[in-house]
Structure formats: C-alpha cells, structure tokens
Amino acid sequence: MSAVTTSQRRKGGAALTGTGALPQVNLLPPEVRAARGLRATKRWLGLGLVATLALCVAGYGAALISGGLADAELTDAQARTGVLQAEQTQYAEVPVVLNALNQATTARQLGMSTEVQWKPYIDAIAAVLPEGVSIDTFTVTGATPMAAAAAPTDPLQAAGMGSIQFTTRSSTIPDVAAWVDALDSVPGFASAWAGAATLTSDETGAYYTVSSAVVVTSDAFSLRFEQVEGEG
Question: Which domain of life does this protein belong to (predicted)?
C-alpha cells in the first residue's frame, strides 16, 4: 500500500510538473500602479525640463556672444565714422577751391578762345615779301570772345576771325600775283589781296606803295588753354 501511494504521488508529481509555470496576477492596488506611472512621468518631465533649460542657457550664451560682437562692430564703425567726419571737416574747403578753380579755368578758356600768336604770322608775311619790299604800316582786326569779326565786304573773300591790312613800299613794281599766292599758302591765311602799285616820292626818293590785306581764319587760333579730352 505504501508503494502504491508513492507511485501515485510520483505520477501526480510528474503530472504537476508537466503543466508549466502558473500565471501571475498583479495584486497591487490601482493607486499604487498609478503612483508608479506618475513618478516615471515626472522623471521624464524633469529630464525634458533640464534639457530645455540647457538649451535656453546655451541660446542665451550665444545671444550674449553675438550681442558682444555686434556691439564691438558698432563701436568700431562709430570710431571710423568719427575719423571720417574729422577728415571731412579738415577738407571741407577743397570742394570750394575746386569749384573756384573750375570757374577760373572756364573763364580763361573763354577769354583766350580767340587768341592768336601774331609774331609767327608777322614773320610769315615778312618771309614771303618780294625782294626789295618792306612794310610801312601794319593793322590787325579780329574777333574777341564777346564780339564776332566783321563780315567781309567782298563776297569773294572767305569768312574769318579777322584780317591784316598792311602797306608796303618797293623801289620797283613788285610781282603782286606771286605775292598773293605766297600769302595764301600760309596756314591760317586766306583770300589775300593786293592793290595796284602807286608811285610815291619823299625826301628819300621815289618808290612804289602797295596796300594789301589777308583774311585770318580760325586755324590761326592758338587754342593754348582749350581743355584736352580726358582732362578735368
């Protein structure tokens, strides 16, 4: 009887062993579970708050650094502005002087716009005089910056900025035609003219006088004070 009981117990034990682990049941009250969940939520909220504070501190620090750099740049810009204003005050008279210089330059250009350097032209007239001919009188008329030259009375004469009238004397009748051609060949001269030779006498003896004239064109202007392109 004892053996049977033992065998049955073994069989029963084997049967119990083969059934596996028993299911577990959470017997904690809901309040305890809720309290545990709340603590976990608080931990996550705390971590989030710490992270947020860290980000805020980092942003504030970056803002301070950026603000410091901006202030430094502003201070530097203000310093440069002060230096430039001081230099501007130092050179405040420069525009006034430049304006006065420009006005003087313009006035000089206008005043000298009709300038003719007469000596080379007088020398040119003397150079083409026929042999034995000398100049007795010499008269120049011409335009000015404020008044134009008189219009030619002879329609065959070229228009110019003025004219030269001169009287010559010669012991013989000069070759007037060759002389007129020689005068017209001088740059700045045009429409040369010579009158008939007139016999005249004085205490020195007899001689021929010839009244002549030549038109002076604008090519004779020296233009020394004209503004060159690219200047000013």
Answer: Bacteria
Residue 223 DSSP class: -
d(CA 190, CA 187): 8
**How far apart are the C-alpha atoms of 226 and 115, rounded to whole Å?**
11
- Burial of 161-196, coded b for 16+ CB within 10 Å and e otherwise, reads bbbbebebbbeeebebeebbebbbebebbbbbbbee
Nearest in space to 188 (alpha carbons), one of 226, 160, 156, 212: 160
Mean of pLDDT values over 122-151:
84
DSSP-H helix ranges across the chain: 2-17, 30-90, 93-111, 118-127, 176-184
User: Tokens 């030549």 sit at which residue?
Assistant: 214
| pTM for the structure as a whole | 0.53
Sequence-distant (6+) residues with CB within 8 A of 149 are 141, 142, 143, 160, 161, 162, 163
202, β-bridge pairs = 205
Distance CA 119, CA 122 (A): 5
Question: CB–CB of 129/168 below 8 Å?
Answer: yes
Tokens representing 193? 């003219």
The chain-wide mean pLDDT, for the chain, equals 78
